[in-house]
TrEMBL record:
Listed EC numbers: 3.4.11.9
Annotated Creatinase N-terminal domain residues: 6-138
Protein name stated in the entry: Xaa-Pro aminopeptidase
GO MF annotation list: metal ion binding; metalloaminopeptidase activity
Xref: Pfam families: Creatinase_N (PF01321), Creatinase_N_2 (PF16189), Peptidase_M24 (PF00557), Peptidase_M24_C (PF16188)
Enzymatic class: hydrolase
Assigned protein family: Belongs to the peptidase M24B family.
Top-level taxon: Eukaryota
Upper taxonomic lineage: Eukaryota, Viridiplantae, Streptophyta, Embryophyta, Tracheophyta
Amino acid sequence: MSEILSSLRSLMASHSPPLDALVVPSEDYHQSEYVSARDKRREFVSGFTGSAGLALITKNEARLWTDGRYFLQAIQQLSDEWTLMRMGEDPLVEVWMSDNLSEGANIGVDPWCVSVDTANRWGKAFAKKSQNLIPTTTDLVDEVWKSRPPAEMNTLIVHPLEFAGRSVSDKLTDLRAKLKQESARGLVIAALDEVAWLYNIRGTDVAYCPVVHAFAIVTTDSAFLYVDKKKVSSEVSEYFKGLGVEVEEYTDVISDVALLASKQLFSSFSSKIEDMEIDSDQTDRLWVDPASCCYALYSKLDADKVLLQPSPLSLPKALKNPVELEGLKKAHANKKKPTSETSKLTEVTVSDKLESLRAAKEHFRGLSFPTISSVGSNAAIIHYSPEPEACAEMDPDKIYLCDSGAQYLDGTTDITRTVHFGKPSAHEKDCYTAVLKGHVALGNARFPKGTNGYTLDILARAPLWKFGLDYRHGTGHGVGSYLFVHEGPHQVSFRPSARNVPLQATMTVTDEPGYYEDGNFGIRLENVLVVNDAETEFNFGDKGYLQFEHITWAPYQVKLIDLKQLTREEIDWLNTYHLKCKDILAPFLNQAEMEWLKKATEPFLDILSHLFSFFVIHHSLHRFNSLFLSNNPIANINVVREADALDGCSVWVSVGLIEKT
């Protein structure tokens, strides 16, 4: 790492003008959360592998900013040459640079890897000391990175209409109507999932994300795709010709954006597209999403003639059509299972086993993110990623957290469950129960239309706050339809950006509160929800109301629940949910698996009744007298029964769990 920093500082000194600092973002040319191996520049210079963060290298310091999901991971991965800056606790990177770098300092960044929003925000912060944001002509990290992986050369794939649910022509028609509505003559599209959604294409250029590296430009009478043409087969080329979409080389986008600005960009297919009548004052504005468009492209436009606002594709992509909704529900159902077994149970082998189960399902295309398979203290690392050489073995005395998902042609999945294979402590049960109560509260919420995720976030946190506990990540994100597992523009979060977009019917969103105790354990529960219209007795303000529909089906581990802390309403909901789990999953299970599922989903009150009968039968064996029983309700008894009871099952009386030994 020292050699990398030394080499970068030499390039900074020889740069024209010389640089006092170099910013290395996590993002690629499309401002993506997940990037390809060759775009992991921040990881290369810092050694930190988390998906979010920013590195700053000065003449004598190296600092890394990241959010609360990665504090523990960054501490473990950063060398002594680096200082961790905790987002939300330490100064923002632009504030730190403005306060700590000298008057007139030059701060370099690759303009392809920084968004318009970020560049403009930094520029304002630097103004008070006349500091300068310098777009570098080449990426200095690439010059130092001698072993940088080659560019991905994977064939572009057409996403069938039977899974997409809407034709490209319909989407283009709607998009052009929005351009007219905003008096804009064109849109520059940089976000990879928006390009993929608009043109009904997919790819494998980024691990876990079915997208292809591409830009797009759409005007009132033309449409362009910018992609490495080596990725476009003759069949795909014909597909685009049929759509009237001009396919250009990926690297031509910057020159074409300049042509677009000067009204010199034309398509050979323009005549095939019905012209729209537009007023003369519409011909100068170009629409750019400041969050996803890089500064390099924006700099080719006349800033006075740019409409800077969120992409008109973001919300339509988030609002799932009926075909997408049905596909998402199918993707969350089990279908087939291989029979191979694993000898040694570790975080990695269990994760691999889970992947093999998914891989046997229809339409499987890969995982939707690296599986978070974590035992004990590793579960406290929110986005922990196990390595075969150093991973932990499964431990019956420790909590196990598994956050996983997959990509299918008909949908994208994301689910988290936390379990304990031994006897959890009272503290672990308290924490799990608080997380569960928040999870249930959010999932059962009804709320007026126009409500945003910032408002709803408190529902998931309130049970934890009661104990003085909390978590450092958002509570929910949208989920794509065979696209990114993290999808906007909506979210459920404490972050102010969650106020920007209200939840709407047909959106998907996750419900995933958690609690993480450094050095001990982590707990998270996650279901995917669909936002639906709600029928209510009244309709105050004639707003209309919304509610959530769960489409994830996996039992919660009853052993970890302190039943005494649940309300009757919460118990009823859990019983109903578990009954649905049993009904939905039963057709895909063999007899042994079905026996496990029956016990895992047995209604709470039935279990307590069963246990009461059990203790009456064994009254003399355990020397319970009538006085003892009358003074000690069954829900408060904490006894472990030997494995010979109840058909070879262990019984944890305190939580009513029946578990196979």
